[in-house]
């Protein structure tokens, strides 16, 4: 097994204050605060790529579209 340490990404990298917010609102906030980053709404249980990117944030939402975990760069 290879030990992997993700690269350091400058700027804000997580948004704990968005847990409980609407997914669409979270995406708008993240993309406003971190220019050049794309935030994606992902339904709970979905499969996403595991490669690390400093320009991507997964916004995990429940069935009601509410953010269920802290969105983070990656």
Automatic annotation (TrEMBL):
<dbReference type="GO" id="GO:0009611">
    <property type="term" value="P:response to wounding"/>
</dbReference>
<dbReference type="InterPro" id="IPR000864">
    <property type="entry name" value="Prot_inh_pot1"/>
</dbReference>
<dbReference type="GO" id="GO:0004867">
    <property type="term" value="F:serine-type endopeptidase inhibitor activity"/>
</dbReference>
<protein>
    <recommendedName>
        <fullName>Proteinase inhibitor</fullName>
    </recommendedName>
</protein>
<dbReference type="InterPro" id="IPR036354">
    <property type="entry name" value="Prot_inh_pot1_sf"/>
</dbReference>
<comment type="similarity">
    <text>Belongs to the protease inhibitor I13 (potato type I serine protease inhibitor) family.</text>
</comment>
<keyword id="KW-0646">Protease inhibitor</keyword>
<dbReference type="Pfam" id="PF00280">
    <property type="entry name" value="potato_inhibit"/>
</dbReference>
<keyword id="KW-0722">Serine protease inhibitor</keyword>
